Amino acid sequence: MIKIALIGHGVVGSGVAQLLEEKRESLEQKAGDRLYCAKILDLRDFPHTPYADRFTKDFDEIVSDPTIQIVVEAMGGLHPAYEFVKACLEKGKSVVTSNKELVAEKGAKLLRLAKEKNVNFFFEASVGGGIPIIRPMHLCLAANQIDKIYGILNGTTNFILTKMIKEQMTFQDALLLAQKLGYAEKDPSADVDGVDACRKICILASLAFGKQIYPQEVHTEGISQITLEDVEYAKNAGCALKLIGQAKRLSGEKCSVLVSPAFVPIDNQLSSIDDVFNGVLLKGDATGEVLFYGKGAGKLPTASAVVADIVHIAKSPHTSLSLTWENSDADLVADISKYENAFYYRLRGAISPKKAQKLWGPLTILSRKNQPEDEIAFITGRMPESNAAAIEKEMGEEAEILGKIRILA
Amino acid sequence: MIKIALIGHGVVGSGVAQLLEEKRESLEQKAGDRLYCAKILDLRDFPHTPYADRFTKDFDEIVSDPTIQIVVEAMGGLHPAYEFVKACLEKGKSVVTSNKELVAEKGAKLLRLAKEKNVNFFFEASVGGGIPIIRPMHLCLAANQIDKIYGILNGTTNFILTKMIKEQMTFQDALLLAQKLGYAEKDPSADVDGVDACRKICILASLAFGKQIYPQEVHTEGISQITLEDVEYAKNAGCALKLIGQAKRLSGEKCSVLVSPAFVPIDNQLSSIDDVFNGVLLKGDATGEVLFYGKGAGKLPTASAVVADIVHIAKSPHTSLSLTWENSDADLVADISKYENAFYYRLRGAISPKKAQKLWGPLTILSRKNQPEDEIAFITGRMPESNAAAIEKEMGEEAEILGKIRILA
Predict the structure, then answer these.
(1) Virtual CA dihedral for B165, B168, B169, B170, nearest 10 degrees?
(2) Which of A297, A387, B401, B406 can pair with B341 through a Cys bridge, CB separation 3.0 to 4.6 Å?
(3) In chain B, what residues touch A143 (CB-CB under 8 Å)?
(4) C-alpha distance from residue B162 to each of B29, B159, B178, B229, B299 (Å)
């Protein structure tokens, strides 16, 4: 029997407890041993669960119990999750987490500690909910150098954008609906400002490039400034508007990492990923492009990814299979001014297409229904971000920038 | 150092040798040990490779060498591949193969033997080329009961159908082009008749249901009867025409497994998978639908999947991590007459929409440009295959069936 403890009995934690209980037999067959949830740490009581007797409010009952081999951290947040996980690894317990903030901020430290102690620190559930991404990247694509990884990493913002695209809802109305349906939190900022997507692209980039990429190094834009006019121009350009996290290997040691809304051309598989679904595209030097797609959140999808990590650990006890990446002190992430992109602009003012082309070079001019006379929208050629900024400066007061969005390439 | 032998230096085998050579350092880091290709069995000579000195024509030099731990079978075909793999497993060597015929026909036997000998038999490359599918299904979705698995499993037929859909090429012209580009073999029957897709769905179904499903149990239809008229009616119905392998868990112990062309509605992610790309959709009871997409064939994608298997074995020596399924004597696959489907029919003859509705029940009538007066095309409601057959019989000589294709649901 392999004894497991859960830290946190919220959405994910309760899902893990439920799956361990309901799928006991098939999990035993797959893991080669009985998986038993022995302790659950939560400050609340849950008297009506089938495992009501196993709750504790004292972390020490878990960390000091030598019979507990695997600890699931599903409390979220950085503290005290970090201290709890660290203490468990130090005691030689493997840890599984769904906490993206923890992995994005402390991944390198915890992975090194796990390796030292010959245990595992797994986090499949931290990106893409129930979609297998971390393990396929690590195990299945071992013969590839990953040159590029990008995707739709946040279901809430994708739901909002889908409603804006398909039903012409405004951002505010779509956000209210997402909150009503339980897809968005009361304070939606972590989702709509791109913070959640940023943590996830940091985890994927760290894994792809072998060095920790920290969220604070990543230029991050959310979707709250997106208007229905932008959506309409995107359609006119043959694109869908999505919030994209992306990381690319640049020449030299540097990489680019970015979270921002983007025009996604319809021939890109990501353009048709709607609602709360997520999709991640990897480009390996041997395999080419590979896409993973599915529900990026939700109780059981996420819990099933946690349980898969548990099964993997149970199948190979006493083996440290952890992926690793190193701590990075160097400035691995290149400055955003150096990234190359094509841009969509929407301008208001006395600026003709001819004048715009003089400033930006060859453009694709876009149009929409009921377009005001003093509005112009276009897509530029590819240029460094710094060039785009310089041109904006040169344009000065002649026109007001109502919208500026990158084109995914 | 971990010594590896290759059986077969064809497309996949030479790709494996190339990756082991070119990516030596990064693989050593990932595997935790040097991966060294010590012997290559092939009847031909390859004097101009960097490892020309390691070729042999004698299988015994591999099977009897106790220092060789991992054998890669990349020769294809059932014999002598089966005998070679069996002999290697019996000697306690782990085996990695890309040979779908071998796995589809002999998987259960070889998996049991590997388990007995505490070694591994891996075959990630046998389905979907470089796309990680087998391992994610096995490891990442361990907490799921897989209820349904279906997809585009053959790149050659998908290339042909894409040319028919996007460029109105006839089947014959598209096949010739595929042969010219090296996507189709001189004798294209294994691809166009669905044999290759059948082997792959058998492997996926065996893994999903835990019992060996044999190709000869699976109703298999190819694409050689598909016409441009069918393609046009599919468009009119809001669908793309694809060759689909599918396996579903039915009530009781039975399952349905089928390979056939299908109308794929455009809101299904598979509908936009074009050219030589493959896509596999899984439905797990916890995770919901998950899609894997990428290049389903090609030298380096397939070889990179083989190398990933090698790395996985190298990381956990002395551990049998193999997935397993049992041999099945029982009739696990239900008779096709019991499967339920909606059907597209194209008929020629004196049959009115009203008469057709009388026979088939409520229909969606389809149309195309230049539709002859004596042609009718429609989509039926869902019904057992046996009902459809009975109605065809009832219709008798009134009309000739020019096309009949299932609708993917």
Answers:
(1) 90
(2) B406
(3) 19, 23, 27, 303-305, 307-308, 311
(4) 41, 5, 11, 14, 22
The stretch B372-401 carries a mean pLDDT of 95
Distance from CA of A26 to the nearest CA of B (A): 8
Q: What is the DSSP string of B286-334?
A: TTEEEEEEEE---HHHHHHHHHHHHHHHHHSTT-------B---S--BP
Q: A300 to chain B: which residues are within 8 Å by CB?
A: 286-287
Between CA B304 and CA B27 the distance in angstroms is 11
Residue B186 designated active-site:
no
Burial B30-61 (b: 16+ CB within 10 A, else e): bbeeebbbbbbbbeeeeeebebeebbeeebee
Mutate which: B287, B302, B320, vs A, most A CBs within 10 A = B287
Q: Which of B251, B259, B261 is nearest to B213 (CA)?
A: B259
Q: What is the pLDDT of residues B169-222, one digit of tens each?
A: 999 999 999 999 999 999 999 999 999 999 999 999 999 999 999 999 999 999
A108 touches A206 (CB < 8 A): yes
pLDDT of residue B319: 74
| Helices (H), ranges, B183-298 | 189-192, 195-209, 228-236
Q: What is the mean pLDDT of chain A?
A: 94
DSSP-assigned beta bridge partners for residue B70: B4, B94
- Give A401's strand partners: A347
| ipTM surpassing 0.85 | yes
Whether B173 contacts B167, CB under 8 Å: no
Helices (H), B97-217: 100-116, 134-135, 155-167, 171-180, 189-192, 195-209
User: Which of A136, A145, A311 lies at the smallest CB-CB distance from B142?
Assistant: A311
Distance, CA of B150 to CA of B248 (rounded, Å): 8
HSE-CB for A243 with a 13 A CA cutoff: 33
pLDDT tens readout for residues B331-364: 889 999 999 999 999 999 989 999 999 999 999 9
A297 pLDDT tier (thresholds 50, 70, 90): confident
Question: What residues in B contact A135, CB-CB < 8 Å?
Answer: 135-136, 139-140
Tell me which long-range contacts B356-363 makes (C-beta under 8 A, separation of at least 24): B359/B391, B359/B394, B359/B395, B360/B391
Average pLDDT for B252-278: 94
CB-CB contact of A243 with A376 (8 Å): no
pLDDT of residue B322: 63
How far apart CA A204 and CA B299 sit, in angstroms, is 26
pLDDT tens, residue by residue, A231-281? 999 999 999 999 999 999 998 889 999 999 999 999 899 999 999 999 999
Contacts of B83 by beta carbon, 8 Å cutoff, 6+ apart: none
Examine the pLDDT at A198 and tell me if it is beyond 90: yes
**Position B8, amino acid:** G
Element (DSSP H or E) covering residue A191:
helix A189-192
DSSP letter, residue B139 = I
Of A124, A140, A144, the CB nearest to B135: A140
- B257: helix, coil or strand? strand
Residue B259, φ and ψ in degrees, nearest 5: -125, 120
Mean pLDDT, residues B100-105 taken together: 97
Q: Which residue has the tokens 């297409």?
A: A353
pLDDT > 90 in chain B, percent: 89
> Which residues of chain B from 334 to 363 reach within 8 Å of chain A, CB to CB?
none
Active site residues of A: 200
Token reading at A388: 């785009």
